[in-house]
Amino acid sequence: MQRVGAFAAMIAEAMGCPPEYCEILYKAAQMHDIGKIGIHESVLRKSGPLTSDEWRLMREHPRIGASILAGSEAPVLQLAAEVSMAHHEHFSGAGYPQGLVGELIPLSGRIVALADFFDTLSIDRCYRKAHHDAQILEMIRERRGQQFDPRVVDAFFSIVDRLFQAREAINAAEEVADMTE
Length: 181
Ligand SMILES: [Fe+2]
Known about the structure:
The protein has one domain (2-180): Orthogonal Bundle (Hypothetical protein af1432), CATH 1.10.3210. By secondary structure, the chain is mainly α. 61% of the residues lie in helices and 0% in strands. Bound molecules: fe (ii) ion (FE2). Fe (ii) ion (FE2) is lined by residues 32-33, 61, 87-88.
């Protein structure tokens, strides 16, 4: 979660977003998958491919998260609700839950979509091993203008070395925390 927050804030900064926005996006992005608490463990931890019924459940997590976070006065929670709702939309319109196209998707969602994709592919999952970095960058390049906003992808590549450094730093800090626990 911390990695996704950091990547999102760094991409927003590279896009020229104001510092106050980057700061709340750092926190809001960390809550993007909060709606998964409404999804049964057997679906979340499944090692094989999901059935169409399981997919239907899984695709509810953006709405569940947004409804958990909705109605707050706090700007960070308002942004978190927006992020939760929009982080699986695709720039092409092929995403979910609303199938929004292009700039109709809130900027926060377009940024977190890429931050989350980058992070998810970097780690081992119960259903597959982590991808190699070169492969991840290739997959992001291929999805420019399709799954992802081209401006967000360009900002990502403009700071790609710093993103890798941030990933290593957060992982190292996590290892230290694990050892001291
Ligand atoms: Fe998600």
